Amino acid sequence: METADRTQPAELEAKTTRLQEKIVQLRGQMRRLEQIKEELKTQPDGQLSLSDPDARSMATSGRGSGMVGYNVQVAVDARHHLIVAHAVTNSGHDRAQLSPMAQAARDAMGKSRLKAIADRGYYSGLQIKACADAGIAAILPKTTTSSARFHGRFDRADWRFTECGSN
Asked: CA-CA to 150 of 20 to 30 Å: which in 14, 71, 103, 106?
């Protein structure tokens, strides 16, 4: 029995060698992660993309979801269907993009006044006011903030309120 305890089978030696190699690899990964952790501390927004240094995490429409990337903005001339202005941002939503894009489009087309049409994702009172102050008429639907319609129920827009007179 003492002889058997002192000699290890070949498969046990191979397994021990593989485990030791894995430990060395894991220690190397831990060192790399520590370096990344230190580099992350130097980033002003607390984000670091290893594949694209300029990309940032942006929220998407799903709750708690997001993606690392860019938000591309484009303004199109409605008459000629040509792109007149574009921008790339790291903001995950469009709410702060209406006024800058509308002004860029107005400037690119050499107009003093402009009518900008956008979807509800751009709705922001501050942005609409900034457009008005710049001589841009912003036309866009108000956002829907109620989750009732999403859940198949009536929301505020489905109701009409009238005053009833007393008889």
From this structure: 71
Q: Which run of H or of E encompasses 138?
A: strand 136-139
Distance, CA of 30 to CA of 32 (rounded, Å) = 5
Q: Who's near 39: CB < 8 A, 6+ residues apart? A: 48
> 84: which residues sit within 8 A by CB, 6+ positions away?
75, 76, 77, 104, 105, 108, 109
Is the entire prediction scored with pTM above 0.70? no
- CB count within 10 Å of CB 58 equals 16
**In 79-99, which positions are buried (b, 16+ CB within 10 angstroms) versus exposed (e)?**
eeeeebbeeebeebebeebbb
Residue 26 CB contacts under 8 Å (≥ 6 apart), including other chains: none
Q: Which residue is listed with tokens 């841009």?
A: 136
> Other C-beta atoms within 10 Å of 71: how many?
15
Q: Max CA-CA distance within the chain?
A: 110
